[in-house]
Structure of Bidirectional sugar transporter SWEET:
Amino acid sequence: MAIFDLHHPWLFVFGVLGNIISVFVFLAPVPAFRRICKEKSTMGFQSLPYVVALFSSMLWMYYAFIKKNAILLVSINSFGCIVESIYISIFILYASKQARRQTVKLLVGLIGVLYTLIFLVTLFPLNGALRVQVVGWICVTVAVLVFAAPLSIVFQVVRTKSVEFMPFTLSFFLTLSAIMWFGYGLLLKDMCIALPNVLGFFLGMIQMLLYAMYRNVKPTSDLEKKVPEHVITMVTVGNSEQIHPVKSEDMINKLDDVAADQPSDEENNVSPPALVANDHDGGVLAKVNVPQPLETPVLVVCAA
């Protein structure tokens, strides 16, 4: 095939590098799904990014097959379809009934209906170069929408001045992936592959720039700002039924003292326990469960 033609060595190089980098991008959510398996719960995660990623990979595979000279595009998106299918299967296995129904509806809507419709409409009425062109621009449209999705995270970073939900490593690999697939599409003289990755490159650069700007900024979280508003100001003394108000500041100080005495979570490798503050007479001031921060899964789609 043309992809292995020795007269196109750089095409092969960009395609192979694009495959390698995209593999790391596809595998980025693995830690989140390992935690889902460990906790046997989806913990509020959503399946939409992974269903969209599967839909996108299937479209690019279809495009690569009818184009007939983009085997490296077939290989990475085949890998993407397998990985995203595993993610979705794990999600369905541990999701609540409502989340499971929503995921099934998404699969039926995007894969069962929309993908099948695109396949049938372009396969039979169209042929040759026209079919390739139509499918290619459908892929471009989907890719632009997929690349535009992380803009919400960019706005969140600017608003909160926190890069907690925008890891630098992922942004870096997404940018590299966009560069490789842009070069691959350019050398292949295929604008349907090259154009979406221009947007992907600029979005990746914006993310890395924001990370450099806010990586050392530690703003007060919304939870910390709202603590005084949610402090319990009633206390039960001993075992009596009398209830007395206490000062919020005193209770917060007691909770801080108790928290300082708690063993490190990393040393014990256990979930943080509930903190209990007592008054001098043995009465319980408050019991606070300390939540663990959730890892937010990211939208992972082949840059091609």
In short: The CA atoms of residues 115 and 187 lie 28 Å apart.
